[in-house]
Design brief:
355 residues, alpha/beta, Rossmann fold, 2 domains, 7-stranded mixed beta sheet, 9 helices, 16 strands, globular, acetylation, phosphoprotein
């Protein structure tokens, strides 16, 4: 769905049905306007703005659908259309930043999130509002201001209000890489923490920097013995262990993205074996690709809680265990503050770097 919110000095282009659009409009005191976004027979994207945006602040709100590449092109073309229509400021509101997992070098790959950031800036974006970037260092890929909002206050509120006896819970990091996030949640809820160590690591932690090319055949006459490069001992995966007591407790696994659920299912099985009697998964971005809903429904996980940064209504129909937390309130407040030139620090109060 593509529409425009328009006011005298405010115009917002919205491409989202997962966010509560009418609720967002009521909070901002604006009405939905008009824009046409469609594809030609050859799959080329066309954007036609049907209101004047000259000298106005334009907020383009875009969530990521299953066809992520088409979504990106719609966003870039819409930004460029506003730029060529003489908009004063063009602010992108992208709750889930696509390709954020590809923010490190892997073998002979590329840092795609850096490429996407450059494309957005080149198209004419002047400000970015997003939420829970996979790596906070992605902000450095942009040469424009970036506000990286946090969903942790909403998830913490859900734990306190919707999980009975949450005082008997323990916050779990499914890998040592997410231990800081788990610690931040645990400190705010005054709960203990547990870390699962030894599960199979993904490509993000192995071979990430491209320096694993095999050496050339050694020529004894060409290389001095003192210049020989020492070889490292190959990694060996230790057996899975849980650091922390989860016996007779509610286990709450926290992470930023839940897409391929295999690691979450393995963590849930491990926690069940260690005596946890209920298992919750809390994540900001519920991508839930492929057959993830079916796997969750058949697993030991009792509930998966995600925010509505990404459309997942179909997944919820397939799996009643998936619950949604609405974060449109903080997005509408961020839009209002930027448009009025107010400080954004209120939205980051009591927010730590590890959230």
């Amino acid at each position: 769905m593509h529409c425009i919110i328009s006011l005298v000095y405010l115009t917002c282009y919205i491409a989202s049905y997962c966010l509560e659009l009418m609720f967002l409009c009521r909070r901002l005191g604006v009405e939905l306007g008009k824009v046409q976004v469609y594809q030609e027979a050859n799959r080329e994207t066309q954007v036609q703005i049907e209101e004047s945006v000259r000298s106005k602040d334009v907020f383009i709100i875009q969530t990521v659908s299953k066809d992520v590449n088409t979504t990106i092109m719609e966003l870039l073309i819409m930004v460029y259309a506003c730029r060529t229509s003489c908009a004063r400021n063009i602010i992108g509101v992208i709750p889930y930043f696509p390709y954020s997992k590809q923010c490190k070098m892997r073998k002979r790959g590329s840092i795609v999130s850096k490429l996407l950031a450059s494309m957005m800036c080149k198209a004419g974006l002047t400000h970015l509002i997003t939420m829970d970037l996979h790596q906070k260092e992605i902000q450095g890929f942009f040469n424009i201001p970036v506000d990286n909002l946090r969903a942790s206050p909403f998830l913490l509120q859900y734990i306190q209000e919707e999980i009975p006896d949450y005082r008997n819970a323990v916050i779990v990091a499914k890998s040592p890489a997410s231990a800081k996030r788990a610690q931040s949640f645990a400190e705010r809820l005054r709960l203990g923490i547990a870390v699962i160590h030894g599960e199979a690591q993904d490509a993000e932690s192995d071979l990430v920097d491209g320096r694993h090319s095999p050496p050339t055949v050694k020529n004894i006459g060409a290389i001095h013995p003192s210049l020989e490069i020492p070889l490292l001992i190959p990694k060996e995966k230790p057996p899975i262990t849980v650091v922390g007591d989860v016996g007779g407790r509610i286990a709450i696994i926290v992470d930023d993205i839940i897409d391929d659920v295999d690691s979450f299912l393995a963590a849930a099985e491990t926690l069940k074996e260690r005596g946890a009697y209920k298992i919750f998964v809390m994540a900001t971005h519920g991508i839930l690709s492929s057959d993830a809903p079916r796997l969750i429904e058949e697993s030991a996980i009792d509930e998966v809680v995600v925010t509505n940064t990404i459309p997942h209504e179909i997944q919820k129909l397939q799996c009643p265990k998936i619950k949604t937390v609405d974060i449109s309130m903080i997005l509408s407040e961020a839009i209002r503050r930027i448009h009025n030139g107010e400080s954004m620090s209120y939205l980051f109060r009591n927010i730590g770097m590890d959230d």
